[in-house]
Target: Phage portal protein, HK97 family
Amino acid sequence: MKFIDWIKYFFGFGKDTLYLDEGALVSQEIQLAIEAFAISTAVSLISNAISKCEFKTYVYGEEIKGDEYYLWNIEPNKNQNSSQFIQEFISKLLYENECLIIESNEQLIIADDFTQKEYAVVENIFKNVRRGDMTFDRTFKMSEVLYFKYSNDDVRKLLSNLLKGYNNLLNMAIGKYKRSGGRKGIMDIDSTATGDPKFQEKFDELMNTRFKKYFEAENAVLPLHKGFKYNEQNGEGNKKSTSEIVDIASITKEAFERVGQAFKIPPALLRGDIADIEKITDNFLTFCVDPITDMVGEETTRKRIGRKDFLKGCYIKVDTTCIKHIDIFSIAEKFDKLIASAGYSVDELRIKAGDTPLNAWWSKKHWITKNYQDVENLKGGESD
Model:
């Protein structure tokens, strides 16, 4: 290729014009997807919180760490640790409104897909249970699986229908923002141009191609055909204002609040606000996390323990106190009060604080100060 031909190719020579195209290389439309972002943020927050919980196993009323404890807290299967397993489990439950877990070769497996046939008075059955590229060639009864359903209504579908309106409003706000800073001008066309047999062809190319690239480019030159004259209008109307930015931020905030309400998450926590973080975290645990962990504890207990052993004090409990970070120096007085009132032993409180138990005879005992006495043992005065 000759140098002059390369120059023509690079700068976009036509038959009559020269155009410098710089914006075509860097211009890209970015579409904000607030629905996916808000729901993903909510699901990630909940699943990460529950993955920090400890699955406690009790046998005849006493906390025991055996095979069942190891399965839920360390290694549910050969390909996942407990944190990965719980995050996937809770995410699937929230995204799809249901989740199926089966046991195979003493491993807990989360099903990617399945078909459920429901009955009124007998057990439901599950067919076509698939994990990855493997489909189990058997039918599972309800008593043989762990089946979780988040809500009677599909929260994600309801949110999708609701947030479609917010997406439309957001697109309108983005369009308004673009128009507020748009470039406008006046095109003069004289008879010289309109008399050209190729006028319509040149006009369409100019308006649909060259002007589009010219306005999108950060820096560009726009040569015009003979008979065309363009005058840029640089008035106050093309200056961007902050009102459009506020509109976009308000719509996004409103969408996050609706998602927070749907998943029982305080909107401030979902947005990342840190004001009154302790109060909103307690609210999050009470109304969002606890109902899910209660459901998980009940389903695992009734399927893996059973009624007979449950009545003897055997059960599985999901401990949500592990979610909140504990600063032992800020709660030293509360620890002292819990020990002094015989509420907890020293070892129990050390475990809750993240320390290892001492396993001494005195650290396992429950102590009470002399300030706490039976009211019937008080003598004299008004107590008598």
